[in-house]
Amino acid sequence: MCKVFVTSENVGLDYSPAEGWGELQFITNKDFTAMGELSPSNAALVREIRKQLLKFNAEEDLVIVSGSPLVSAVVFMMLGKMGVKRISVLRWSNRDHV
After folding, report:
1. In this structure, how many other beta carbons lie within 10 angstroms of the beta carbon of residue 26?
2. 8 A C-beta contact, residue 66 and residue 90
3. pLDDT value of residue 96
4. What Rg, from alpha-carbon coordinates, does the chain have?
5. Which CA distances in Å does 38 have to 41, 49, 53?
6. What is the pLDDT of residue 76?
7. Using an 8 Å Cβ cutoff, are 1 and 21 in contact?
8. Using H for helix, E for strand and C for coil, what is the string for 10-49?
């Protein structure tokens, strides 16, 4: 069964419709601070994202872009650095809930 990687969990959203596509995997529920590379919490977040993405199988897994645009950008950047050439994105509509 494929996994559905959610870039950043938003507690106000119901992700259960996405479970029809696979097992949900929330990459993080945190966001980057304005301190950039100087921030220990930013470094920890990068490590957390990298650890979660080690489970990503580009042949069958999907990504939902949710929450922080910075986190989403880092997720896609890291997947590219991991050699992933094609990423299947599951489009989520908060309005239509699909």
Report:
1. 17
2. no
3. 65
4. 13
5. 9, 18, 23
6. 98
7. no
8. CCCCCCHHHHHCCEEEECCCCCCCCCHHHCHHHHHHHHHH
Strand partners, 4: 24, 62
User: What token pair was written down for 19?
Assistant: 């479970």
Q: Which two tokens stand for residue 43?
A: 């470094």
Q: The dihedral of CA 42, 48, 51, 53: what is its sign?
A: negative
- Answer for the pair 63, 5: CB distance below 8 angstroms, yes or no: yes
How much is the pLDDT for 39?
A: 86
| pLDDT of 95 | 67
- Give me 23's structure tokens: 């097992």
Q: What is the mean pLDDT of each run of 10 residues along the chain (98 residues)?
A: 94 90 96 85 95 96 95 97 96 66
Can you tell me the distance from the alpha carbon of 96 to that of 40, in angstroms, rounded to the nearest whole number?
38
* Strands 23-26 and 62-64, bridge-based pairing: unpaired
